[in-house]
Amino acid sequence: MGKVNLEDSDSKDKKTEYSLMRVKGTWKRQLKKVNKDTCDCVPAAKIYDSITEKGITWTVVSPVVFTYKVTETQDLLDPGNDTLLLGHITDQQQLEDFKKSNKPIKRFVVVDQEVYKIYGPKITGYLEANNVLYKLLALPTTEENKSMEMVLKILEEVNNFCLDRRTEPIIAIGGGVCLDIVGLAASLYRRCTPYIRVPTTLLSYVDASVGAKTGVNFANCKNKLGAYIPPTAAFLDLSFIQSLPRRHISNGLAEMLKMALMKHRDLFELLEKHGRMLLDTKFQADNSVYGCNRLQAASQTTRIAITTMLEELAPNLWEDDLNRLVDFGHLISPALEMKVLPSLLHGEAVNIDMVYMVYVSKESGLLTEEEKQRIISCMVGLELPVWHEACTMELIQRSLQDRLKHSGGLVRMPLPVGLGQADIFNNTSCEILHQAYEQWCNELSIATDGHCDP
Ligand SMILES: NC(=O)c1ccc[n+]([C@@H]2O[C@H](COP(=O)([O-])OP(=O)(O)OC[C@H]3O[C@@H](n4cnc5c(N)ncnc54)[C@H](O)[C@@H]3O)[C@@H](O)[C@H]2O)c1
Ligand SMILES: [Zn+2]
């Protein structure tokens, strides 16, 4: 949201600041009191009017506060676990009142079709055991179907279901695509209906489910239509990951590696050390083969990834600040992902972008050769692609040009400066970009041909 700086306006104009006070059930403007100590007793919203020779302008400053929960739990679909149905309620009194009333719970649930094939009976069993009045839609929420048509399809069904948009959140169960589509549909329905995210892929577990963004592809561009409306809650249960194909575990590991490279050296070292085991065991808590390290590494790495991600997102939920470390791996990858759709998964495209940027860092003197090699070995260990023929210099340049256009004239390139640390750079020369590209192709193109043999 735009920031309002009223202090800097032309001093000739007559400006007045009003606070808002609640008086007998209605809101009234009240001339701002000079005494700042009394600020606590008035809401943060303000109205300013400014009178000039040309007319009058009212400027409204209305801070929007989002409160949402990200809850990690076990056995989310165990009928005795009420997290899915009630875990989003933050007000204790409201929760108690609800539990006392005998009103049946009503929920609209959208599930990714593939997830439904595996977990359908468990989901319906859960809803029925809890006497929920529900409508369940199982949809092919694939990247190719991530469109406004799918949003409208969901909205038609939501509309037929007649839910109470204040108390009956829409539930989305699936990967990032499903969560993004349903989040957008909910944000549009009656201008904003609460929704709950249940991620079933590793990527959505650590990334898509914890932030505020929703979206669909449009005009052949990734997530071109979307909103910044967070879910009312995200409920995370690692056990969904056990049915995920191995390639999709690597896919999620790419977003975890992003956070590690940007801001958490320990996470990087955990992924370096346990990455292969996490892939083999699909982040499951059975320590019969690998000993107790296995559970520790699964929960430790996902929790660090989520916490570091939340640290970056919470103060910048609407992305006002354009200098974002979480954009690492996301400067070139959107164009690459769309260009070769569906051959690269999101995290794979992100990884290819990250490797190139690691070369840019190395060429800029920000990373040593040894650090660069460690990062690449880690990526290879996580079975992520480290080069792609479609990622040409032309695509890189076009993407960076595009970035300039949409980032206030600066490229704002997050680059690793050592392991687990990063900074934002604006003046990387064309020469460095070319050298990095050449070096990258020389070292990795022939050996890997896209996917690496670990
Ligand atoms: N909103 C955000 O902040 C954000 C962040 C990162 C990524 N994303 C978006 O997320 C999308 C990628 O998400 P994704 O990688 O989860 O892909 P996805 O939603 O396409 O899911 C991947 C595949 O796994 C299947 N699947 C899902 N859960 C399963 C399970 N438990 N067992 C077996 N199969 C399962 C799905 O049917 C699908 O085929 C992209 O569209 C990306 O733009 C959004
Ligand atoms: Zn991403």
Molecular structure report:
The protein is built from 14 helices and 14 strands. The chain is an alpha/beta fold. It has three domains: 14-61; 69-243, Rossmann fold (3-Layer(aba) Sandwich), CATH 3.40.50; 246-448, Dehydroquinate synthase-like - alpha domain (Dehydroquinate synthase-like, alpha domain), CATH 1.20.1090. The structure holds nicotinamide-adenine-dinucleotide and zinc ion.
Major sheet: order of its strands? Answer: 5-12-9-8-6-7
CATH level 1 class label of the largest domain: Mainly Alpha
Number of domains: 3
How much of the polypeptide forms β-strand, as a percent range? 15-25%
Oligomer: single chain
Number of helices: 14
Helix content: 40-55%
List its salient traits:
Pentafunctional AROM polypeptide; single chain; disordered C terminus; 6-stranded parallel beta sheet; 14 helices; 454 residues; Rossmann fold; Dehydroquinate synthase-like, alpha domain; alpha/beta; binds nicotinamide-adenine-dinucleotide; 42% helix; 3 domains; binds zinc ion
Q: How would the blueprint of this fold be written?
A:
Elements: E1 14-23, E2 26-31, E3 46-51, E4 56-61, E5 69-72, H1 83-86, H2 92-100, E6 106-112, H3 113-129, E7 133-139, H4 148-161, E8 170-174, H5 176-188, E9 195-199, H6 202-208, E10 213-218, E11 221-228, E12 233-236, H7 246-263, H8 265-281, H9 293-313, H10 333-340, H11 346-363, H12 369-381, H13 393-406, E13 413-416, E14 422-425, H14 430-448
Parallel strand pairs: 5-12, 6-7, 6-8, 8-9, 9-12
Antiparallel strand pairs: 1-2, 1-3, 3-4, 10-11, 13-14
Helix pairs in contact: 4-5, 6-7, 7-8, 7-9, 7-11, 8-9, 8-12, 10-11, 11-12, 11-14
Bound molecules: nicotinamide-adenine-dinucleotide and zinc ion (ZN).
Zinc ion is lined by residues 207, 255, 330, 346, 350.
